[in-house]
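User: Structure with iron/sulfur cluster, tokens only please.
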Amino acid sequence: MKYRILGKTGEKVSVLGFGCMRLPTFNGEDGQIDIEQSVEMVRHAIDNGVNYLDTAFFYHSGNSEKFVAKVIKDGYREKAFIATKLPLGNVNCEEDVEKLFNEQLDKLETDYVDFYLLHAVNNDSWENRVLKFNIIPKIEKLKAQGKIRHFGFSFHDDLEVFKKVIDSYDGFEFCQIQLNYIDTDYQAGTEGLEYAASKGLGVIIMEPLLGGKLASPAQSVCDALDKSKTPVEWAFDFLWNKKEISMLLSGMGSMQMLTDNLGYADKAEVGMLTENETEMFINAKKAFDKLTLIPCTGCEYCMPCPEGVLIPKVFSAYNTITSGGRRFVKEIFPDIEENTLLCKKCGKCEKACPQHIGIIDMLRQVRNKF
Ligand code: SF4
Ligand code: SF4
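Assistant:
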């Protein structure tokens, strides 16, 4: 495993972090984590040098933190950093910060977290939660008590808001942004990455595979990539090549994915790509952009829908068909039309979507297409 320093935190983190939001689950709508298989996988990652576990209040319907508590027993607490996040949407008064944090400590069965992030900061949550409810001084207090070691934020909004957040408070030590060879100008993007690093923040990357879309992309995208590496390895190397990036998070859902990713991480180097290879990603992005896919990453922040619309599944089916993966939608989602018709347009999902997808209208468009 390769390690890099995470900005102002000064911590040496593995270039590959384990995202605990897409763990193996049992079949069924409740998506219950397959604890035995998942614990084995995450511990295997730690045994092979991964030293950062990323979880959050909401992941796996609130069960991810409890899962991490199981992983870190038997001496594993000392071998890996734990990162979790404050669910800003649940903060409705100043007292909620400590209340939620203590609940998270209880679920994690630990006395402290190594990395604590404001979850999914955007302009609205920054103004109407973080500033309005004095969240930062509350976190500083928890940090002074030794319950939080490092403080940062994860981000989903545009570049202007990203710079505003960084410039508003110099106590942030690191941030987590969405980046991959498609999203170079989306949200914080490459310019945001360079800005954060120039201010001394460590940068962690999420969605390196764009919700899995870059793992087995459409033929036109594959054709643009050199055949000497898999699409996943290319997507990761695009990021590891950059000196401003300390780590990328991968939500690994199987032992095979983990084994592959560990192999890729072993070769990660700053400046590892040639000029030709850097050019190659521009062509792959051009091919991808022509596909006009719905920018859903499958994060499930919009779920559950009170009416039972399976939003990420609908969008995933649309994207699979549109990118030429399968010819018939009935093979992957036979009830897609009926399911989209359940939508009562309450708008709950749109408020939660970090990709700012106009979900209601998009469901209508998907229904029309099929
Ligand atoms: S707008 Fe439609 S899809 Fe979204 S939460 Fe409401 S009912 Fe569900
Ligand atoms: S629609 Fe938005 S919130 Fe829902 S899974 Fe997709 S990206 Fe996530």
